[in-house]
Amino acid sequence: MRAVVLMSGGLDSCVCAGMAHGMGYELHILFVKYGQKTEKKEEQCVKKLANYFKADLKILDLEFLKDIGGSSLTSDVEVTRDDTGIPSTYVPFRNSIFLSLATAWAETLNANAVFYGANSIDFSGYPDCRPDYFKAFQNLIEKGTKRGDIKLIVPLAEMSKSEIVKKGIELRLPLEHTWSCYFNTEKACGKCESCRLRLKGFEEAQYKDPIEYE
Amino acid sequence: MRAVVLMSGGLDSCVCAGMAHGMGYELHILFVKYGQKTEKKEEQCVKKLANYFKADLKILDLEFLKDIGGSSLTSDVEVTRDDTGIPSTYVPFRNSIFLSLATAWAETLNANAVFYGANSIDFSGYPDCRPDYFKAFQNLIEKGTKRGDIKLIVPLAEMSKSEIVKKGIELRLPLEHTWSCYFNTEKACGKCESCRLRLKGFEEAQYKDPIEYE
Fold it and tell me: Which one of A56, A100, A149, A154 makes the best mutation probe of the B interface by having the most chain B beta carbons within 10 Å?
């Protein structure tokens, strides 16, 4: 069994890959650089994780998303730290671009599945993280590929951050090689929306986060 | 009204853009280079057409599709000229990648529509050219964008090649600036599946194709 796994180098994508690996899939990891401020940090993490999983890794440069703008992840707009409505970190239609690239690769590899570590609970503010969205994408795969039988698997969809942390610990994953912070600082800031979610997850799971904070 | 128009520099994409222009849309043209053998020819055509429509043009380099392979359009596999089953020119999940990129751009532009010159009649062999596929993509846009109101318009979907030629003539489009041939030769080969469809379309429409053939 083969799977393409989209990875960002964050905690969630590490646990997602660990789950796919645990299910016996041969992993083909896709990492997309799209001008996000933390792309170097993320790339370092993904390389270490690909090495850990002994996985095939493809790194794709997609400056287009930075070029068209529209998100605080790729532009100089401030990352807003409260999440009323759709957060400023939303990147227009990003998940569809990523999942399409992953599905294309899966089709050429004759892979059975595409794994994506998105989470519907913590990021329900993003339109393209909702369960209905993933159902729509599964339908697109069925209609738009040769055999129509690639499964989109979003294993963390219904998990809370503390459940994700616990799963990572249970699978003995190298969570020290993950980066979740929105900022490109030496150590994670510990204050942004993403750091706070992560820290709360570790706290609730009663484990110590192995990465360093400012 | 604004629209993002995916263009390949072929006859169909020219007529598609002409129809969007005729409906009063301000055009934002997206051309993707993905290592297709004829990308330079196509790029020259798209630039001339963008100029003709006084449209904004974005050219995106996406070597990824060549890199993952799987199609005779991007690899050294021979282009098969008969079309039993799915042709060798099928590029895995290409339309989903292109439409996702176009939709992302449309979202940042606050555009109302994405136009795509795909044709379900002549290319029913491609899974991602069928009417059901485009319905599935429209549903994805509704579920996965902020406002969910961008319309995917595929105006040539149900038109025959001769109807497309007639529409191009009626709109007085510069069809001499289009390239349909699968081969990167100075003049179009006149023999490949794509040339034959085009020539048959002109013949049935009773117009002379303004491009040169070998």
Answer: A100
Which neighbouring-strand residues pair with B28? Answer: B4, B56
- Pair of tokens at residue A92: 């227009």
The pTM score is: 0.92
DSSP A188: B
pLDDT, averaged across chain B: 91
Question: Is B127 within 8 Å of A136 when comparing Cβ atoms?
Answer: no
B156 vs B159: CA distance, rounded Å: 5
Interface test with A, best of B65, B96, B114, B130 (most A CBs within 10 A): B96
* Per-residue tokens: A102: 């992953």
Say if CB B72 and CB B83 are below 8 A apart: no
* Closest CA of chain B from A33, distance in Å: 12
Enter the ipTM. Answer: 0.91
* Whether A130 contacts chain B with CB within 8 A: yes
Domains and CATH numbers, chain B: 2-205 (3.40.50.620)
Sequence-distant (≥ 6) Cβ neighbours of residue A147 within 8 angstroms: none
Are A161 and A122 contacting, i.e. CB atoms less than 8 angstroms apart?
yes
B28 near A CB under 8 A? no
**pLDDT tens, residue by residue, A24-49:** 999 999 999 988 889 999 999 999 99
pLDDT in tens, A57-113: 999 999 888 888 777 777 766 666 445 467 777 788 999 999 999 999 999 999 999
